[in-house]
Amino acid sequence: MENQPQNNMQQEIIESFAKKVNELDKRQSKIETLELESLPQQMKEMDKSINELRETKTLDFSNQLSQYGELLIGVKDQVTAIPKEIPVKTKIEFDTKAKFVIKVILGLSLAVVTLTGVVVALFVNVSHRADDENRYKVVKGFYPEVSHQVDSAYVVNKDSLLEQAEINIEHQKQVLEAEYQARQAEESSKTAKKQLNELRKQHKKR
């Protein structure tokens, strides 16, 4: 019966240390500044002291309790200093190969866009030429004399004929534009005269 209080106290101390050890096992961190390397040695000292406590038969635990208290304070300070969440800084960098691949992809994309533009331009040009050929076929079919004269002049002096043709085409455009503007001006003049006559009639009624 005399050993019962002693055994109970030993059991409480053992359970207290076991609880602290379990808390340490659940918290893990790789922060070097906290000097966590000293924890295993402290655990060994605590385990050694516990074993010595189990073997002792005296009721004077003041010395052991003082040592355990100091150890617990040190362990508690280190455990408290461990952050619950360790911030992780993520830095994404492309290596040289990745940069090269990206440049190749961008270059190919630009080449595809350029090639597409060239193909579209060629297609439009070919379409225009096909239209011109069809028009000339119409001229040959309905105006054979005119087409014969054009063919003969083209064989004799192609450059001068093309130059004069461009001049004539530009002149025809200017004439058509002038005629269109004249018609627009005539219509505007008629509208203005009509409005003027209506205003004069309204003025006479007053």
Automatic annotation (TrEMBL):
Residues 184-200 have a biased composition (Basic and acidic residues). The chain crosses the membrane at residues 100-124. Keywords: Membrane, Transmembrane, Transmembrane helix. Residues 184-206 are annotated as: Disordered. This is Uncharacterized protein.
